[in-house]
Amino acid sequence: MALKLVLASGNPGKLAELSDILADLDAEVLPQSEFDVPDAVEDGLSFVENALIKARHAARHSGLPALADDSGLCVDALGGAPGIYSARYAGTHGDDEANNRKLLANLTGVDNRRAHFHCALVFVRHENDPAPIICEGLWWGEIVDQARGDNGFGYDPLFYIPSLGCCSAELPKAQKNAVSHRGQALAKLLTRLQQR
Predict the structure, then answer these.
(1) Contact 2, 78 (CB under 8 A)
(2) Facing residues of 140 across strands?
């Protein structure tokens, strides 16, 4: 029997990406919007803490196992910012263009452009699961001065991967899903779920 789980996210880009990657899992993945799950209060200090808050919140409201992702961009020269505030870096949650403009403004004249995407995935069997599965992925690159590419979302047009010679937003979806921070974390999660 297929696993039925709720995906604790309202971000359409993230939902599409996670659903694509989870297609190989024998599971029915339902968005939390199907259960009228209100937004969780993400008051953790790390990606892992916020993902755990969101997973437990979605499990509580849906009565199903839940999977949550908390991810963002960490820029070395900015002390790890925007970090856990990546989606609302410029003040409004999910305004990708404003976030990208603020990032570029904050890096004006800065030579060190090294950055990484960080993804924390948390799976809970139920709200009070004492042993959640936690998997993380990191994707290293650097920030370019101008947006490139039309794929992806968030900071993808500014995130350059030297080993691939392009920005994340220039990658085909399948390739990005295979190498990204989220793809790495999900590969670990699939292995752990299959072991259970």
Answers:
(1) no
(2) 116
The partner residues of 161 in beta bridges, in order of sequence, read 166
Q: What is the pLDDT of residue 19?
A: 72
DSSP string, 12-62: HHHHHHHHHHGGGSSEEEEEGGGGTPPPP----SSHHHHHHHHHHHHHHHH
Give the count of domains, the chain: 1
Distance CA 60, CA 58 (A): 5
Report whether 13 belongs to an annotated binding site: yes
| d(C-alpha 79, C-alpha 154), whole Å | 19
- Structural domain boundaries enclosing 16: 3-195
188 is in an annotated binding site: no
Beta strands at 133-143 and 166-167: parallel, antiparallel or unpaired:
unpaired
pTM for the full model?
0.90
CATH for 60: 3.90.950.10
User: pLDDT per residue over 148-175, tens digit each?
Assistant: 999 988 999 999 999 999 999 999 988 9
181 is in an annotated binding site: yes
Catalytic residue numbers? 70
